[in-house]
Amino acid sequence: MRVIKWVGFNLMHNLSVLNHAAFKEMYRSAAEHLVKEYHYPDKLLERQFDPDFAIRGLLFDTRNGILMKSTFLSTVLSGAAFLGRQQVDDSTLERLYPGMTITQADLRAMKHFADPYGRLYATLVSDIIQLFHETGRSYHPHYVYQDVMHTMSVLQRGNIEPKHIVPKNIHDLLLSLRNSGRKTFMLTNQAFPFVDKALQHLVKPHMKEPENWPSLFDVSICSAARPSWWLSDAPFRSLNTVTQKTRWIPVTELRQGHVYVGGSFREFMRLANAGGSSREVLYMTAVTSALPHIAGGDPIQDLALPSSLGWRTGAVIPEVDVEVESVGSAVYKKALVKLLDLERSSTQDPHEQYDSASRAALLQTRDTLKAVLNKNFGSAFRSLGGHTHFAHQLLRFADVYTGRAEKLRIVTESFLRPLRRSLPHEPFV
After folding, report:
1. What does each C-alpha distance from 339 to 206, 317, 326, 346 come to in angstroms?
2. How many percent of the chain have pLDDT more than 90?
3. In order of start, what are the domains of the chain with their CATH numbers?
4. What are residue 61's DSSP bridge partners?
5. Per the count of CB atoms within 10 A, which of 82, 158, 159, 205 is most buried?
């Protein structure tokens, strides 16, 4: 196995944890924009962002308007599907998705709220649909989704205020990687003005001259235009960070402390001399759409494309830390032990699994576990005995995932490998 020599960061991983005030303000701004520009009902302005309604990684059916949690086998989960704010009963789900199964045709109409703003999108779309049902106003879910995503794209182009970014010590992380012999690079679609403002905010407590943040990276790349960056052979252009104008002089080497725009995967590998193999590069991202939140963008492609080109990939998912804390609670552990006992009992005795009392206890215990994480949808990663559609995509394309990028220091000290997992036909130990 090759040793990681280069570690790259999508800037979004630094901004993926926004505080509650940021989501609340973005929700309010989006509602105002939808009312003013798209003539949505004024009552939308009375709504506020509800942080407890949705989770990340949900699917939204643009034909039927249903927000749902799905398993990795494309099965709709009972009790985890909503039309607006109303839970959809199983009989309705069976009618729309026979066998509770999402077909390939259904998937084409599904949108995956997988990026760091997924909870915000899901909540706003559901609140709008609920409002339309309450007022008796006609609507089509496809256009609700399209209007919300376009509005969010407009708002995010206006940039996130640094005050809304949860402070993260990337300064020490970058220095520790460098001290261990690794080289680091930043690769982001964001333009330099936003990157400059955000990174100065993040490194200010640790640097006397925060404007010199490019010195922390061996290579700094802005306006990368992913996903085309991965597949094109476009050259880099050097940026004058004072005048913020690009230079016409051809870039023949990538130098520390300089900022570059554009470029491509092929040119990076050539100019950065990034090892003898793509497998020596680890690229960390926040699992966000490579497009600037344009409706229809694939939110997993920023992992899938570099993975297909041979880079090691990692995902920064803040929900990991939240779930680790929740599943460590006494309530969760007690319910989990009870659930495992009930499941094993029903497996050992074929007649037990059809006992109504045991089944009721099993369902009640599952609801207890679900409520610890989120009363409506439960875990973003787990679904009954398996994992969710979101987790499946994550496990498929990410070599490693973590709740905070700061934990990446472990790659300099440890050999990482997954634990052995039993297959269905193997004995339980």
Report:
1. 47, 27, 17, 11
2. 50
3. 6-16+166-294 (3.40.50.1000), 20-157 (no CATH), 320-402 (no CATH)
4. 110
5. 82
